[in-house]
Amino acid sequence: MKAIQDYYAEKYSHCYGCGRNNPQGHHLKSYPDGEQTIARFTVPEQYTGGVPEHVYGGMVASLLDCHGTASAAYFAAQNEGLSLDEELGRCRFVTASLKVDFLQPTPIATELVIRASLRAVEGRKVQLEMTMSAAGSITAKAEMLAVRLQN
Amino acid sequence: MKAIQDYYAEKYSHCYGCGRNNPQGHHLKSYPDGEQTIARFTVPEQYTGGVPEHVYGGMVASLLDCHGTASAAYFAAQNEGLSLDEELGRCRFVTASLKVDFLQPTPIATELVIRASLRAVEGRKVQLEMTMSAAGSITAKAEMLAVRLQN
User: Fold this and answer.
1) Using the beta-carbon criterion (under 8 Å), do B15 and A50 form an inter-chain contact?
2) Given B25, B56, B101, which is nearest A97 (Cβ)?
3) Which residue in chain A has the smallest CA separation from B143?
């Protein structure tokens, strides 16, 4: 199944977090999952926080940010009755604001599950909420405001 | 001059964003600067966002996060009349919450200046505000709540 990021136009596919055209990046992949979207990612050990067994804060934010902008495109397409091809052929979503609450340390070398839910679509703005979980326990929550950047 | 992060205990110095014991990381260094703290960093080209000339969102959040936790330790030490050696010998600050507002794209391969200002210290909690600037123009603003983790 094609990930949401695989629909991004070539010129928008260089992101270190999720771009297929960035050879050194994380290549995060997000997918529709019922009413939500989902991404799974196991953080390599070099992206440790202050203590070696935990993911560093910037990486937690990065995964949430890339999953959030992909999810915003998906929710906007759903809202307008467009396919992902149609939606992402004309735009990309970028982050206007991201708030991350770090609830507990996020473990390294463990599969993380990142989920997004739509809160509201208003014109070119999409608001969504996200969670990051490890072994069924939520380690971080986030709120995002994403904005459509026209092609 | 020794950076704030250079006072972190060995066991807390593995962060990909700012740990001296992480050979692959960014090694962000934060310093006192009058009433504020400051860090300067030029983002290497692989950490691009969707378009190659801009920094990816996760990297913006990462630099703000690492500068923020270092700054929290510095402001807490100031508030209690402790040296950084004394403050960071007994604790490390971790992020409870980080909100980033992305005001405009942050350029790659340009020196970024990150500044933090204290908003409040209350027990083991420190609230601060930050800005990221490129060529004198603010590209992102942030609010952080950091919490002291006792040794």
Assistant:
1) yes
2) B101
3) A99
- DSSP reduced 3-state for B24: coil
Q: Which residues in B lie closer than 8 A to residue A13 (C-beta atoms)?
A: 50
Full strand arrangement of the beta sheet holding A111-122: A30-33, A36-42, A111-122, A125-134, A137-150, A91-102, B91-102, B137-150, B125-134, B111-122, B36-42, B30-33
Identify the three-state secondary structure at position B78: helix
**Domain ranges, residue A118:** 4-150
ipTM of the complex: 0.97
Count CB atoms within 10 A of the CB of residue B53.
14
Q: State the total domains in chain B.
A: 1
- CATH number at A17 reads 3.10.129.10
| Contacts for A80 with CB less than 8 Å, ≥ 6 apart | A87
Q: Does A24 touch chain B (CB under 8 A)?
A: yes
The contacts of residue A66 (CB under 8 Å, 6+ apart) are: A5, A15, A17, A18, A26, A28, A30, A39, B56, B57, B58
Q: Which of A14, A58, A96 is opposite residue B52, by nearest beta carbon?
A: A14
Query: pTM for the complete prediction?
Result: 0.97
The DSSP output letter for B56 is -
What average pLDDT does the structure give for chain A? 96
Cβ distance of B16 and A65 shorter than 8 Å: no
pLDDT digits (tens, 9 = 90+) for A120-147: 999 999 999 999 999 999 999 999 999 9
Smallest Cβ–Cβ distance between A14 and the set B19, B51, B62 belongs to B51
Residue B63: its chain A contacts at CB < 8 A? 58
* B90 part of contact set with chain A, CB < 8 Å: no
